[in-house]
Design a protein that fits this description.
The protein has about 325 residues and is an all-alpha fold. The protein has helices at about 1-20, 30-50, 60-85, 95-115, 130-135, 140-155, 160-175, 175-190, 195-210, 225-230, 235-255, 260-275, 275-290, 295-310. Helix 2 runs antiparallel to helix 3 and helix 13 packs antiparallel against helix 14. The relative contact order is 0.04. About 75% of the residues lie in helices and about 0% in strands. The protein is elongated and about 120 Å long. The protein has two domains: about 25-115; about 130-310, Alpha Horseshoe (Serine Threonine Protein Phosphatase 5, Tetratricopeptide repeat). The protein starts with a helix and ends in a 5-residue tail after the last helix.
Length: about 325
């Protein structure tokens, strides 16, 4: 296809240029020399004006004047020769075609040597995949999900990384609720690692947009890239204190806006992860009071309470 485009462009260029190559020039050599001689004489007359204006000094003006006078003499000699004989011959037609033809032929000859007309990108960057890597590359999303679940079960379900990968696969599959559940498990296992928190927040916002909802305003705690970098530079104790501060901030926001079910769920889970089971139970109780009469919200709260082993009311 690309060669067809090149051929069409070349044909279009030839169609536009060829008439000009065959058309005889309306300007003879004598006319061109006459105009050039007149322009040179005008430039010579301007030198005195430039000296008067201070643009040129006398020494510079002398050099410019001598150079222009030599040019005028040379043009005059050529013009006298034309007047004594005949006009200079026009450029031969064959030469008009020889120059572009030479360029095309040389380019076409060099391209196979220095170019690569049959280049095809290699997605594997010339690296052969191992049988296991090739098998994974050929898997469907459902197959990858099943493989991750199997590996998580074999590893004892204690590695948050597996749940993060599982959450990503489920997001790609459109299984948003299960994906968020995987992220929440990863948060629990990693004790709210800042990078997982950041990815979880992004997933929450994406799911909210997909469902036409407003992104949650109090998702477990909001962390940007700078916060992640700063968090990674802290010690484990400092990270824990930083996370506890963000959880306290979430609790304060829920005091101002208690009708945020997702915020309560994350606060309860975060309190449990931090080992603050009494505060988690108190938050669960406060959330139940807030959503009294909302069976769907109470069901979600009761399910989380059972999952975390908190005392039911």
């Amino acid at each position: 296809m690309i060669w067809l485009v090149f051929i069409l462009l070349l044909a279009l260029a030839a169609f536009l240029v060829t008439p000009a190559l065959f058309r005889p020039s309306s300007v003879t050599a004598k006319d061109a020399l006459t105009r050039e001689l007149a322009a040179s004489k005008h430039q010579l007359s301007q030198i005195d004006a430039e000296v008067a204006s201070g643009f040129l000094d006398e020494e510079g003006a002398g050099r410019a004047r001598r150079a222009m006078e030599r040019r005028i003499l040379k043009l005059g000699d050529r013009l006298d020769a034309l007047n004594a004989g005949k006009d200079e011959p026009a450029l031969p037609t064959w030469m008009k075609f020889a120059v572009p033809a030479t360029i095309i032929v040389v380019s076409a000859g060099l391209y196979p040597l220095v170019g690569d007309p049959f280049y095809t990108p290699n997605p594997t960057n010339d690296r052969n995949l191992s049988p296991e890597e090739q098998a994974i590359a050929d898997m469907t999303p459902a197959g990858l999900e099943a493989m991750l679940i199997q590996r998580i079960e074999q590893s004892g379900q204690g590695d948050p990384t597996g749940y993060v990968f599982l959450g990503r696969i489920r997001m790609d599959m459109g299984k948003y609720d299960e994906a968020l559940s995987s992220y929440e498990t990863a948060l629990n296992l990693s004790q709210n690692h800042p990078q997982i928190v950041s990815e979880y927040n992004q997933a929450l916002a994406f799911v909210a947009r997909q469902r036409g909802e407003e992104p949650p305003s109090s998702s477990a705690p909001q962390i940007d890239d700078q916060d992640v970098q700063a968090m990674n530079e802290l010690s484990a104790d400092q990270q824990q204190e930083r996370i506890r501060g963000m959880v306290d901030g979430l609790a304060a926001r829920l005091q101002d806006d208690p009708n945020d079910l997702q915020g309560w769920l994350r606060l309860i889970r975060a309190r449990t992860v931090l080992g603050e089971t009494d505060l988690a139970a108190a938050s669960l109780s406060a959330a139940r009071t807030t959503f009294e009469g909302d069976s769907e919200a109470l069901s979600a709260l009761n399910q989380l309470g059972d999952e975390l082993g908190l005392d039911a009311e």
